[in-house]
Amino acid sequence: MSDRQTKTDVILIGAGIMSATLGALLKELVPEWNIKVFEKLAKPGEESSNEWNNAGTGHAALCELNYTNEKPDGSIDISKAIKINEQFQVSKQFWSYLVNRKLITNPQEFIKALPHMSLVQGESNVTFLKKRFEALSNNPLFQGMEYSDNPEKLEEWIPLIMNGRTSKDPIAATKIDSGTDVNFGALTRMLFDHLKNNKVEVHYKHSVKDIKRTSDGSWEVKVLDMDSGKMEHHTSKFVFIGGGGGSLPLLQKTGIPESKHIGGFPVSGLFMVCKNPKVIEQHHAKVYGKAKVGAPPMSVPHLDTRFINGKKALLFGPFAGFSPKFLKTGSNLDLIRSVKPNNILTMLAAGVKEMALTKYLIQQVLLSNEKRMEELREFIPNAKLEDWEIVVAGQRVQVIKDTEAGKGTLQFGTEVVSATDGSVAALLGASPGASTAVHVMLEVLEKCFPQHIKEWEPKIKEMIPSFGVSLSGNPDLFKDIDKSTSQTLGLSKKEPVNS
Ligand SMILES: Cc1cc2nc3c(=O)[nH]c(=O)nc-3n(C[C@H](O)[C@H](O)[C@H](O)COP(=O)(O)OP(=O)(O)OC[C@H]3O[C@@H](n4cnc5c(N)ncnc54)[C@H](O)[C@@H]3O)c2cc1C
């Protein structure tokens, strides 16, 4: 029996970066709406959005090679890179707006300038990187990118990676100083502080168990208060399912037609974390390599300087792996429970198609520390086992759905699934992830509140001046926006390598 029944305008499920962003946008657009948040953990930003659970890359396609594919004619397709970069510019603009309005403070606690680099070895990879550099560096969004295949230059850029390197294979890198490291955990906590200060009711240790349509078209959300053990019923006109990996099971509970024929494929992650301050100090960049053959795009190895708890850190990974859990704090039964009569064929088709991926992930889980060290030594030839420890990262649940490419196709992107009447929306998938949170939450608003978008547009443009405009096609506007966001977010200064 419920002991509590309440009505509200908006319910946000989950206290990660996505709900935080949607809540913050709505607070600016319609401050009078009542918003409630239910989070099953004790604090915000504890799952994938936590700083130790993701790689903290402000994904802007500055260094990630999987966003620029080589076409059959040998040219490089940069359209995806432009799209991702533009989406990150949207995030930076909204964060700058919040800082300028003093709705969040101390941006240096969540974002820092950090060079983004791509590093490759071997002749064909070097040729690819050079072509990629030439294709990107003509575009205003990628201005300032440098390329070098000169070992002396590379030694200057990445001493830790070049020291002790004996291979005679050609090696090359690109470097761009406008990259960032983002502490999405810190940002999520700041946004939730802001929401709480602005009359948003945030209920921690409240687990959502069910979501049902009511006779008037609203949604009734059944929530377990984990401290008292009592069940509560909250109704709302709009529900956003921002449960991260836990979104799919909640979406399935709504029963909307759009929730059918979708499955989830969980991929776990591990990072190696450096414990030696002398080694940490010798590196100052995010250096992305090329994914191994058969590896999923999200397991591209990278060596990253990070800024966590006010300290510089050095992380390598992520090593992908298989775990049936949908959340790091989830259950081993998550995957099996997500198989329903309507998605079993989709899931089975994916199982057959993705045998190689499953095999790869299982092999990754079975890697010994020594094998992981071998992969690390491809980046840091002199790496010592005693300087590194393992931390478990977050879970990424990739979407499986039927597409033009066939039944049971694994998707590596982020997807907003919403009811046709816009009364409920869920965010599935995790890539490019938190970096594009603002763009994706604007998509939620456009899909779910089409009747309000026109009236909201002036405010959205005030917050995000590039809304609806291609920055890549408007170099002057990009220059202005980049200058002002960099100033507001404190991204203009460079930090030297301390080698
Ligand atoms: C290894 C790894 C590396 C990554 N690297 C990057 C990167 O470098 N850059 C980048 O931009 N993105 C990266 N990502 C992706 C990024 O972390 C995610 O896209 C983002 O954090 C997702 O935010 P979210 O709010 O959707 O989910 P989460 O942060 O996972 O939040 C979901 C919340 O919902 C809660 N919840 C779930 N079910 C329920 C329920 N039934 N009731 C109540 N609460 C519930 C959970 O407890 C959790 O707090 C990475 C992810 C991983 C795992």
Word description of this protein:
With 499 residues, the chain is an alpha+beta fold. The protein is built from 15 helices and 22 strands. It has a single domain, classed as 3-Layer(bba) Sandwich (FAD/NAD(P)-binding domain), CATH 3.50.50.60. Helix content is 32%, strand content 26%. The strands form 4 sheets. Strands 6, 7, 8, 14, 15, 16, 17, 18, 19 and 20 form a 10-stranded mixed beta sheet that branches. Strands 1, 2, 10, 11, 12, 13, 21 and 22 form an 8-stranded mixed beta sheet that branches. A hairpin with a 5-residue loop joins strand 3 and strand 4. It is globular, with a radius of gyration of 23 Å.
Key terms:
8-stranded mixed sheet; 10-stranded mixed sheet; single chain; 499 residues; 26% strand; globular; disordered C terminus; binds flavin-adenine dinucleotide; FAD/NAD(P)-binding domain; alpha+beta
Task: Give a short overview.
Its EC number is 1.1.5.4. The chain is an alpha+beta fold. 32% of the residues lie in helices and 26% in strands.
